[in-house]
Amino acid sequence: MKPNPISCIVVDDEPMALQLIEGYVLKTPFLVLKEKCESALEALTFMENEPVDLIFLDIQMPDLTGIDLSKLISKKTRVIFTTAFSEYALEGFKVEALDYLLKPFDYAEFLSAANKAKDWFALVRGKTQKAATKDKEFLFVKSDYKQLKIYLDNVLYFEGLKDYIKIWLKDRPRPILTLMSLKSLQEELPPDKFMRIHRSFIVSLEAIDVIERSQIIIGDQRITVSENYKPEFLAYIAKNSLD
Question: Which fold has domain 138-239?
């Protein structure tokens, strides 16, 4: 899966270092360079109008040091320090920098630090996405040239048919048909309320009436729990069973 881009700026008062790090950023696919700044004050002014995810930040600069700048910016913006002075490492740790590159460093060292940033943002963005999904109460789905609002509490189960999905609801005798894959739908559903139990079925856990051997019963419908999905389903049963 292609990682989401990380917007960044480079801040350094040495023109050669600024040019070198700029080149490293431009050759790294998941980094997007927004600006290069020759001072911390210039960077601070830029970020007032355009926040970024990450700063490659020199420490020893006139007027305002990199350490000072790191204390003034948003906590959402992470820092990788780039400096020729190893004695600043402890201060970098105190301001929770993602990494600390000691000049001169090559592209392999730069890429290692950038990958730490990529992993950090993937983790944070993943948690945010899961939280948003967990709180979701409804979906809009396209059916018959209309966007229909489907409340998730009203769903019994989703049935996949090649490129289409049947959405079976509590208050409708006939399903809603929409062009979508079960895989893409599953990513939008709260995992504490819905579970995929078969290549062709995602069920509402609250709608299950009976579990009988390797089948679940929802109303008049029997759905087999396939072998690929059985371990997760059995774990769910164990977690919610009294015996």
Answer: OB fold (Dihydrolipoamide Acetyltransferase, E2P) (2.40.50)
